[in-house]
Amino acid sequence: MAGEEGGAARTVATGGTARDPGWLTGAPGSDAALRQLLRGLPGVDEAGTRARCEGLATRSVKRQAKLAAIDLAIRMTDLTTLEGADTPGKVRGLCAKARRPDPDDPAVPPVAAVCVYPDLAGLARSELAGSGVAVASVATAFPSGRAPLAVRLADVAEAVAAGADEIDMVIDRGAFLAGRYGQVCEEVRAVRQACGSARLKVILETGELATLDNVCRAAWLAMLAGADFIKTSTGKVSPAATPEAALVMLAAARDHERATGRRVGVKVAGGVRTARDAIRYLVLVRETAGPGWLSPRLFRIGASGLLNDLLMQRRAQLTGAYSGAEYFTLD
Predict the structure, then answer these.
(1) What is the mean predicted confidence (pLDDT) over 179-207?
(2) Of 66, 97, 201, 267, which one is the catalytic site residue?
(3) Does residue 166 belong to any structural domain of this protein?
(4) d(CA 243, CA 251)
């Protein structure tokens, strides 16, 4: 049996399938039990993962497929502003762009969500009313996650009360790296409860987790604790989203569904700046988790500047000429 699991370990991160992921279900809550569970996960072949990502990045996309991919990427975008200098005016402008990304082309779809700090969630809610665009809010002492649990839960409650449809929380990476898995699990569960009907995206901050094995373990821990999405990054730490981390998380989400019957979405955030970047991630989604994940309900891209490049590339596909950045509002 150990040999079979080892074989699965070598294929999971490179596009293969774990033979029997059912042994991963039923995560208990103690540190010792979670440590045994998470460290028993198939290991990640880091060299194989890089090679797989490099190979998928060379896939070419034909013209009609590219236009459809650009529209899909727009619909998957969480249009984000998370700066200390954010103002109500900036959020109003962002919400207007989210609803109608290109005022000159009503065929351009709206984005999936607008992501803001909790104190601006109410304003975003009123600006997006009736649009179908969700309000997402970061919470839980974003971006560090280092605050008393009561403070983090109050952060969530404030955002939900203001009208947030989705909460992007951060895990305590210090607790995770110290092996306090039970603490992290219980905190995610507590935030999940505080969210009520709002969807919960759990940010792993993969750039601080050091290894892809840790990325895999953190992804499983978040999913077993009740995450609706697992998310790569806050966008405040370098490196942020990487294809390698995304591939590992997509493979974990795929295997989690096979083990539990529940689908969990994946969000990449930070460093996705061009239409080419976005399309490469869509290829990664299709070839790793499968075409069922090619939906805004299961894959998101958190970004600020990406939308303008998607709009420029879309217009170029339709007209054969590139428009300059000045043709579109700044995000």
Answers:
(1) 97
(2) 267
(3) yes
(4) 12
